[in-house]
Amino acid sequence: MSQDTEHVKCLIIGSGPAGYTAAIYAARADLKPVLYTGMIAGGQLTQTTDVENFPGYPQGIMGPEMMDDFRKQAERFGTDIRFGYVSSVDFSSLPHKVVVDEVKTITADTVIISTGASAKWLGLESEQKYNGFGVSACAVCDGFFFRGQDVAIVGAGDTAAEEATYLAKLCRKVYMLIRRDEFRASKAMVTRVQNTANIEILYNTETKEILGNQQGVNGIAIYNNKTGQDSVLEVTGFFVAIGHHPNTDIFKGIIDMDETGYIQTKPGTTQTNVEGVFCCGDAQDNIYRQAVTAAGTGCMAALDAERYLAAKEAEEVMAHL
């Protein structure tokens, strides 16, 4: 094999609760897993603050700290964790071939996909123009920079509600823009938003344009989609919390997916349509999308990979008898 090619028993693509849990179980099963973190080591939880609903943390824990604990536990059992991203895959034959950072080829007997999901954007040109200069998809990451200022957040789900209440602790005023006439968030989260004095909820409201100058954002042009009335909000920060899309583009045409790109697994398993390839976490879950469910499927993926390899080894033994 060339210097740029390496063979592994179990390759895990992506970190986060799913990837790290898969690594813990795979390492304990002596699969000697190699895990590539992707561009955000630790996944979405590294961009959150308090995680209060993961069992075993009665006082809650900071997302980055929790992912650091996951990583250390995976390494303790011998997982080879590497920073890098998978740029292409070839699952047409065994072992599977994966190219990392466009230069290194890994051949793997089993592959566990745990690439997670990423934030969606509205699609406005001005959104990208001011990204990092007043526009953000992570209130927890960037809210500090808007302390004492007026900001707006777009979204109607639990994440938007959670981020709005987080921003309200830092900012003077938070406008919450909701496209429809109701929330999609849970009742508990809606109640929390409604009981926060400096959050103003604007229903039936859409963003036309983000306004700004060389210093960054200074306002947003909005309109009411029921009355057609236009107006401008003077804000210095604009946060987008409208959901996520799965990070599965490199598997299109190879792995079975639904119409939005979530990988489809065989019911009750993490097995994909490709032999020896398994998927766990938010890359295959558009319903629950919780840290604890991601970790659960990570465990499943490692067990499925272990059983697959054991069955293959048994077949080879029988073939030589």
Please give a structural write-up.
This protein is of the alpha/beta class and 321 residues long. 27% of the residues lie in helices and 28% in strands. The protein has helices at 16-28, 63-76, 125-129, 139-142, 158-170, 187-194, 291-319; strands at residues 5-13, 34-36, 50-51, 61-62, 80-82, 86-90, 96-100, 104-113, 117-119, 135-136, 150-154, 173-177, 199-202, 205-213, 216-224, 230-233, 237-240, 244-246, 277-279. Strands 1, 2, 5, 6, 7, 8 and 19 form a seven-stranded mixed sheet that branches. The longest helix is centred in the last third of the chain and has 29 residues, at 291-319. The mean pLDDT is 94.
Query: Globular, elongated, flat, extended or rod-shaped: what is the shape?
Result: elongated
User: In oligomeric terms, what are we looking at?
Assistant: single chain
Instruction: Calculate Rg over CA atoms.
Output: 22 Å
- Structural category: alpha/beta
Alpha-carbon distance between the two ends: 30 Å
Taken in chain order, the helices and strands follow as EHEEEHEEEEEHEHEHEHEEEEEEEH
- Estimated share of beta-strand residues: 25-35%
> What number is the mean pLDDT?
94
Largest sheet: 7 strands, mixed
Helix count equals 7
Fraction in helix: 25-40%
The parts where pLDDT drops under 50 for at least 5 residues are none
Number of beta-strand segments: 19
Helix/strand layout:
Elements: E1 5-13, H1 16-28, E2 34-36, E3 50-51, E4 61-62, H2 63-76, E5 80-82, E6 86-90, E7 96-100, E8 104-113, E9 117-119, H3 125-129, E10 135-136, H4 139-142, E11 150-154, H5 158-170, E12 173-177, H6 187-194, E13 199-202, E14 205-213, E15 216-224, E16 230-233, E17 237-240, E18 244-246, E19 277-279, H7 291-319
Parallel strand pairs: 1-2, 1-8, 2-5, 8-19, 10-17, 11-12, 11-17, 12-13
Antiparallel strand pairs: 3-4, 6-7, 7-8, 9-18, 14-15, 15-16
Helix pairs in contact: 1-2, 1-7, 5-6
